[in-house]
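Figure 6 in text form: structure in, sequence out.
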């Protein structure tokens, strides 16, 4: 939920399912939204984002530049991107193991 340019909170699929399972009445978004959204800096690379999401055990985070909210990123987005990367590697017939073990993986992926 956004008010102007300020993120007020988010509602995930899990929040909706939890509300459906526990509430006998219709609920407002404001009742089930998470107002404590984990924040990430837009300048982090993919590995840093994945590490921070795993460390905090969150599935979604708000991306910011300074105080400006840019959007959301989900663990599922990162997983999907990695799956696409694997397909691209297979299409180019590049050895995934050598890319992952090399220090140039991030540079290769940024192309």
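Output sequence:
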């Amino acid at each position: 939920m956004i008010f102007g340019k300020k993120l007020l909170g988010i509602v995930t699929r899990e929040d909706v399912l939890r509300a459906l399972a526990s509430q006998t009445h219709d609920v407002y978004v404001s009742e089930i939204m998470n107002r404590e959204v984990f924040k990430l800096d837009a300048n982090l690379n993919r590995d840093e984002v994945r590490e921070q999401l795993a460390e905090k055990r969150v599935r979604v985070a708000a991306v910011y530049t300074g105080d400006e909210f840019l959007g959301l990123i989900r663990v599922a987005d990162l997983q999907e991107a990695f799956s696409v990367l694997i397909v691209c590697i297979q299409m180019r017939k590049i050895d995934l193991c050598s890319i992952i073990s090399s220090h140039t993986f991030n540079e290769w992926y940024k192309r």
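Caption detail: Residues 19 and 32 are 7 Å apart (CA to CA).
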